[in-house]
Amino acid sequence: MLRQLLSLRRLFLILGICLLVFTVSLPAFAADTYIRQYLRVTEPISLDLDEQGQTRQFSAEDLSAGKRLFEQHCLNCHVGGATLPDPTVSLSLADLHGATPPRDNINSLVAFLREPMTYDGSEETFWCRQVPESWMPHQDVENIAGFILRAAQKAPGWGTNNF
């Protein structure tokens, strides 16, 4: 009986150590494979915050969170960086830069998501829904923007017909 109790105690100790090791190393695995493999992000990266050259650091976990939000809220119209309602305008860097105003940095994408405008900036668009602060906090919207920009920079086929 005592031997079984000691064996059981040892088993719980080993399980506890394994759980501790897994929990401590969990943040290293929090980013999904797509972010690590296709967007090539394992360490924090800098993305343009505005036109003045300011940048913001995004971790792999930030971009993974942005990807999840993008999949939940944007994927119906933006599969692989394409824009299904208007296939002539994608989420490629060239198209983001060519918009009026340009949408090729974090702040401009956040502004667009808060108040979507047509590609030429002449009027509101109803293809994308507004993302007010009451619905999604600023950090989440920045993570979506960060995911879009990094995908436009690195993802094979992003914003093209070849995704």
TrEMBL record:
Q: Does the keyword Cytoplasm apply?
A: no
- Localisation per UniProt entry: Membrane
Name the UniProt key words of this record, in alphabetical order.
Electron transport, Heme, Iron, Membrane, Metal-binding, Photosynthesis, Photosystem II, Transport
**How the protein sits in the membrane?**
Peripheral membrane protein
- Cytochrome c domain residues: 61-152
Write down the required cofactor(s): heme c
Show the InterPro entries listed in the entry: Cyt_c-like_dom, Cyt_c-like_dom_sf, Cytochrom_C550, PsbV_cyt_c550-like
User: Mainly resides where?
Assistant: membrane
Family per record = Belongs to the cytochrome c family. PsbV subfamily.
Q: What is this protein called?
A: Photosystem II cytochrome PsbV2
